[in-house]
Amino acid sequence: MYDPIPAPAAAARLDAAIDRALAEKRIVGTVVLVARDGDVVHRRAAGLADREAGRPMTEDAIFLLASVAKPIVTAAAMRLVERGLLRLDEPVTRWLPDFRPRTTAGTAPTITPHHLLTHTAGLSYDFMEPEDSPYRRLGVSSGLDRPGPSLGENLRRLAAAPLLYPPGTAWGYSLSIDVLGAVIAEAAGVPLPEAVRRLVGNPLAMADTDFAVADPARLVAHYGDGTPEPVRMGEEQVVAFNGAAVTFAPRRLFDPRAYPSGGAGMAGTAGDVLKLLDVLHARGDFLERETVRRMTSLQVGPEARTLGPGWGFGYGGAVLADPAAAATPQSPGTMQWSGAYGHSWFVDPVLGLTVVALTNTTFEGMAGAFATDVRDAVYGTGR
Length: 383
Fold this sequence. Notes:
By secondary structure, the chain is of the alpha+beta class. It has helices at 8-23, 69-82, 113-118, 134-138, 151-160, 176-188, 192-201, 270-278, 289-296, 323-326, 364-367, 369-379, and strands at 29-36, 39-50, 55-56, 63-64, 223-224, 231-232, 237-241, 244-248, 267-268, 311-313, 318-320, 335-339, 343-348, 353-359, 361-362. The two termini are 17 Å apart.
């Protein structure tokens, strides 16, 4: 039997995992929150928000969220579905008539919001494609890099690149939530930032989370993996990940030319993220129970190996189908995802757990030992 938080031993393990990551200089700073049945049972702000300035991390620190924006924007889309303003099976061209990417055979298949939500639309990211790929030649923005194209222009470039596969036939992480953001704006009749505020931010009192930085004084400095310690990011920083070179522009949200990226363009606090994720336990009336069930169900099966063996995908994150195959102590049905600026989160519906771990260190906080150590500490496994 696992010994999850709030047991004192588990809390001590979690603090030890955080302290070890800081002592080994794998991360610079972090905010970790653990909630059980809706109540925060462990909280820790540790390390430095700005190493060079000696500014300590605080629980209300603001982080660039990267892909932690995706479940927030997904929730906005599902609220529109509940209101009858969006259907998951309708063609995206209802809202974006010029978004008609073609297959390599030259056909223009139907793409739906369901395909966008599940990353099965046949799209990709520039940093996941070869140097000579259409994404690179066309200058498709990831929503993380230096501002340039408007949202409309980026969608035009994206639509000019051939689909990697026919929609619905495979899974591939992609810019689909950026496309979904444009759909949300059209369906809601207001720009995406205002739509997300009305549909998600205001109802959940997420005062510090938006497509802009609510309080620049609380924004953390962001770092990339490095030896002997993480490297502070400059105006534009390339960080290697799994053989890819990902370009970051940490000041992007301060540039009026930056389009609102539904998949990567928000900033916010750990506390606000926790408010959104706790909705996935189907408590309260923010989302209907059927909506939560759809979001947390396997929309894409484990054969897609979205996070490796045993993981499929729902609406907003990966869903655990087979804990043994995934080699994880998490319960079946756990939803999990991460953010490239150094974040991880998961929601375990069986144990009523919600865990948010935001760091200011790319990519260790997302895909390094830190995320695994936090998980194992909560469950009482690992070191």
